[in-house]
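Problem 12. The chain below contains 238 residues. Write out its predicted structure in token notation.
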Amino acid sequence: MAHQPAPWSRDELFGLCASDPERVVDLVFDLWDRVNSLTQQVDTLTQKVADLERQVHQNSRNSHKPPSSDGYQKPAPKSLRKKSGKPSGGQIGHPGTRLEMRDHPDQIVTHRPVACRHCGEPLEAIYINPSSAYDRRQVFDLVARIEVTAFNRYHIKPVIDIRNMWKDSDATRTLPGQTTVTYNYRGAVFCHDPVTGAIHSMSNGGFEEARQTLKKRCPARFAGISCAEQDQCPVVPD
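Solution.
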């Protein structure tokens, strides 16, 4: 804001004090109120500027902000190691370690001279004795080994392929190819004694590769249940 000149001159103010002192008093009090109001505004703005400057200078070291918020103002890393007074690198008397040259490397690459470096004569057709002197060096490379894992997922064919096709009136159904074996809606398998009519639940007995399904054990054979037709039962394995 540009500087505004006073509305009265010095002489005009002295004349006003002599002619109308009451007006001068009112003017002084009005100016005093304006000064107090402007002083409060300055104090408020000064506090806001201080808060903004404090936010600008906050980082992960002097506040709860994470290090990722530091941006390009991150300080240079400082090592926690203290100076030992020793020169850097290997110390005197240190045995040292290195990769020794091997007598039988994994592969050998031969570099033959193409032409004489003095006269430029081509040397491709010239025989070079393998036992002649040559420069030898070896390069050690760390080769990553790829490990392949195969996953074989086995599937078991259920007794009931489509349960939604099951009729509510059928409590059990006869297993195809059998006369004394039935199964229900949940897939449980039962053996019926042809003489007494007793019904026994059959337990799982492994996996049958040919039918891709679970084997069922005869209750008489594996549970010790008495069955008069056990010898003639087609379910009992030989």
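Discussion. The chain is about 20% helix and 10% strand. Students who got a different answer should revisit the alignment rule from Section 12.3.
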